Amino acid sequence: MAGILIIAHAPFASALRECITHIYGGLPARIGVIDVKPDCDPVEVRAFARSEIDRLKEENGAIVLTDVFGATPANIAQSLASNSVRVLAGVNLPMLVRAVCYRTTPLDTLAEKSLQGGSKGIQELDASTPANPCAMASAAAAAVANCAVGAAATSCMPAKVASH
Fold first, then answer.
1. The pTM is what?
2. Residue range(s) in the chain whose domain bears CATH number 3.40.50.510
3. How sure is the predictor about 130, in pLDDT bands with cuts at 50, 70 and 90?
4. Three-state SS letters, the chain
5. Whether CATH 3.40.50.510 fits 3-120
6. Is pLDDT of 20 > 90?
């Protein structure tokens, strides 16, 4: 399972980690973050990033996700690139979710799927945009599960029924 290191302008890396913790109900293993602050010493951050890669890297390597190509976090991330470490710029939450989902695949596949997730996650939405059927099914299943267990049963019912 590939390790994942997020290097981004503070507090973006930590925020992405918190989002993935929320989505998965806990932090998946082997995910590290480095928030690069405006007054950081890039040489020190680069040394710390190398130690984090060594800690996170698994048999199929590691992937480093960074925010803005050409900025300090991306330059630090790029210095980590090797045969066993892929670096992707332009990280967003869909890219990170894909990286977590595909981290057991070969590194080339992981990088490809992560890039696809990041780009496919960028959509213009308006009133005519169809809802995500997977998200709707998940929400419906969660609502049914809540009712079945009796937890917050009124949240499953329309407001008029719940008020009786």
1. 0.80
2. 3-120
3. confident
4. CCEEEEEEECCHHHHHHHHHHHHHCCCCCCEEEEEECCCCCHHHHHHHHHHHHHHHCECCEEEEEECCCCCHHHHHHHCCCECCEEEEECCCHHHHHHHHHCCCCCHHHHHHHHHHHHHHCCCCCCCCCCCCHHHHHHHHHHHHHHHHHCCCHHHHCCHHHHCC
5. yes
6. yes
